[in-house]
Structure formats: structure tokens, C-alpha cells
Amino acid sequence: PFVAVVSDPLSSFSVVPLLVCGDGFRAFLQRRCPIVAERFCPTPWCWGGRLQTLVRVFIKSSLSITYRNELIRTGDGGQLSLDWVDNSNSAEHPQTSTRPTVLFLPGLTGNSRQTYVLRAVQQATRHGYRCVVMNNRGFGGEELLTPLTFCAADTSDVETVVNHVKKLYPQAPLLGAGVSLGGMLLLNYLARKGQDSKMIAALTLSVCWDSFESSISLEQPINKLLFNRHLTRNLCSAINRHRKILGKVIDVDYVLKARTIREFDERFTSVMFGYKSCADYYRDASPGCKLQKTAVPVLCLNAADDPFSPKHAFPVSLAQRLPNVALLVTAHGGHIGFLEGLFPNGDGYMDRLLGQFVHAAFEHLEDLREACSIKDQVTQ
């Protein structure tokens, strides 16, 4: 199902992003999210994918967001840390019970304090919406109560959080936004739940479509040096932090010798979640071939020069055939980068896209459903 993105539309420095979707979804996005038709001009001194990925971490100024933390229990006896921004003073949606809610799923080693999450939360709260960030187990500052963490294929924690949010606010529409691994989790959840996702729409940012291809890309010498080893160290640090409880089911010292994400997944993730091999886990985790099982409008932003998610793995042909999926591809932007302007320390392309799409989905939901041929769904 994977077709390479043709190079011509994305070959020049500043071009309008490639939008792959059905006619109805395209018309809706061009009308309600005009940013999809704008030229994306990456920061002139920072336009390569690797540079965009690295610089974003250091140059993006942090924001002062005050969260309300909540710990909820899971079916296996564990706990999840949720960080809320209730937006109680919302002028646009003063009624708490019906105030639209955005659920954010961070990346592999991320949490609610990442700059990309803080900026996304700021975008949503500006429009008067409520936000909640699901911190992955072991990364939200909470203790692990059971010897279980998380992976891109296991959507049980996402389902627990969605059910919890909908129980608290059954009349409030819910939209999911996932970044990198969080986007994989979100797409896998939507594919598994179909019509029962309890979400009205979804947005993914820099999602890795094929775990095998992402692993190969990240093991290229320069990517291994710049990104792979760093992420693996962060993963190993988290395991070591919780070694007392994880040591009951995993050889922690063996895991800590991992030097790449693939080695970590071979020694820890695939074992923890009962896969026969890392290949089996990667096959189950890859969302690219499951898009046809999703039942809500989904907008997916990727950069053609993302070192984590190579463009030849983008599900272009599949997106072309699905009325509810839109794939938006910029020529440059790297992984969670999308820096623009000479001094890109403020809101970037990714942040503005999120703000426009979230607003469009909540405020023009019936138009969106009609555009995506989703007419018979009950309002969640």
C-alpha cells in the first residue's frame, strides 16, 4: 500500500505542501484550514530535515502552561498521569459540560512539558477548548504500579483515557492529536475502534508510518549518531528508573546494553508485550496499512525530509482512495520541526495547522462529516 511521493512537487525550497485526499475533504480543508494551500517557507538557515529536527529542540521557547494533574487507574492495576488545562474562563465555550476537548498524545520519550505539546495546548486553549495530555506510563513523573509500560501497538491506555474523558464530559466532543509515536498510537486506536472511537476527528504530526522503514532510516550512520542513540539512552534511563518493578519480568541489565531503538525493542518492548519477535511488533505497530479501518476524519502532517519517517513509506495511494483521510506533505520540516521565519522561536507551521484544524473540526463538524462522507455517525 505504500507508494513513493513523487519528487517534482516537493523539489523546490518553498512550495505549497502536497495534499493527498478526496475531493470533499480537500474542499473542506482549503476553505476552513487555509494554511494547507499556503507556501511553507522553512527557516532559510535551517531547512534540512536533520537540522530542523535538532534545532527545534533548542530554539523553541517554552511556554508557561499550568496543568491540573490527575492520576487514573488502569485495568491491570497500573496508573496513568493526565495533565489537564480546563480553560474554565473560556468565552467561546463557557459551558463546562459541552466544552470541546482535545486529547494530546506525546512522542516516544515525551510528556506534557515538551515544547511541541505546550504550543499545541496553547493553540487549542486560544479557541476556548479544554485540553488533556496523556503521559505515557513511566514518563509523567508517576510511579509504575505494575510491570507494564507502553508501546505503539498497545492502545489499551488510550482507550482507558478516552473512556474516562467521555465519562466526565459525555456531551463534549473529543478530538485526538498525536505526535510521532503518539500519532501511531492514535491511528492504531482509531483503526481498532472504528465507529466506536468516541472521537469526532484526529490529527497526527510527524507520525512514523512503517516501523521497519523508520528503523532502517534511524540506523543510517548520521541518524544513528544524532538521534537513535539519544532516544535509546532516554528509553534506557526510564527503564532503569523503574527497574525495581520492571525487574520482576525483564532482564533490566540486558535491556540497558541496548544501543539502538531496534535493540531496545528486541530486548524490551517485544518481550514486554508478548510478541514472538521484534518484527512481529513492528508489523503490528505500523499504522500505514490500517487507515482504511478508521471511521473519522484524519489529517496527517509529514515532512518529506523527516529522518524518522522516510517519504517512500507514506501511504499515498491509500490516502488517495479514502474519503476521510488527508495526507499533508511539506518538502522540508524534519521530525516535529516545521520551523519557519528567520527567528523560529514562536509558533511554527505545525502549531498553526493544529490551531486551524482543531477549530475547523469543532466549529464546522457537520460540514466536515459531509465532506468526508461520514453522514450516519451519531455525534459523540
TrEMBL record:
Membrane topology, as annotated? Single-pass type II membrane protein
> Could you state a single Gene Ontology molecular function term?
phospholipase A2 activity
Q: Which GO terms describe its cellular component?
A: membrane
For this entry, list what GO says about its biological process: medium-chain fatty acid biosynthetic process; medium-chain fatty acid catabolic process; phosphatidylcholine metabolic process
Which EC class is this protein assigned?
A: hydrolase
Report the subcellular localization: Membrane
Question: Predominant location of this chain?
Answer: membrane
- The EC number on file is 3.1.1.32, 3.1.1.4
Q: Which reaction does it catalyse?
A: a 1,2-diacyl-sn-glycero-3-phosphocholine + H2O = a 2-acyl-sn-glycero-3-phosphocholine + a fatty acid + H(+); 1-tetradecanoyl-2-(9Z,12Z-octadecadienoyl)-sn-glycero-3-phosphocholine + H2O = 2-(9Z,12Z-octadecadienoyl)-sn-glycero-3-phosphocholine + tetradecanoate + H(+); 1-hexadecanoyl-2-nonadioyl-sn-glycero-3-phosphocholine + H2O = nonanedioate + 1-hexadecanoyl-sn-glycero-3-phosphocholine + H(+); 1-O-hexadecyl-2-nonadioyl-sn-glycero-3-phosphocholine + H2O = nonanedioate + 1-O-hexadecyl-sn-glycero-3-phosphocholine + H(+)
Q: Which residues form the AB hydrolase-1 domain?
A: 100-341
User: What keywords sit in the KW lines?
Assistant: Hydrolase, Lipid metabolism, Membrane, Phospholipid metabolism, Serine esterase, Signal-anchor, Transmembrane, Transmembrane helix
- For this protein, the parts annotated as crossing the membrane are none
Annotated catalytic residues: S180, D306, H335
Among Pfam families, the record links this protein to: Abhydrolase_1 (PF00561)
InterPro entries, A to Z:
AB_hydrolase_1, AB_hydrolase_4_sf, AB_hydrolase_fold, ABHD4
Protein's job: Phospholipase that may play a role in phospholipids remodeling. May selectively cleave myristate (C14)-containing phosphatidylcholines through its predominant phospholipase 1 activity, cleaving preferentially acyl groups in sn1 position. In parallel, may have a minor phospholipase 2 activity acting on acyl groups in position sn2. In addition to (C14)-containing phosphatidylcholines, may also act on other medium-chain-containing and oxidatively truncated phospholipids.
Family affiliation: Belongs to the AB hydrolase superfamily. AB hydrolase 4 family.
- Stated name of the protein: Phospholipase ABHD3
**Provenance organism:** Pygocentrus nattereri (Red-bellied piranha)
Q: What is the lineage of its organism?
A: Eukaryota, Metazoa, Chordata, Craniata, Vertebrata
- Gene encoding it? ABHD1
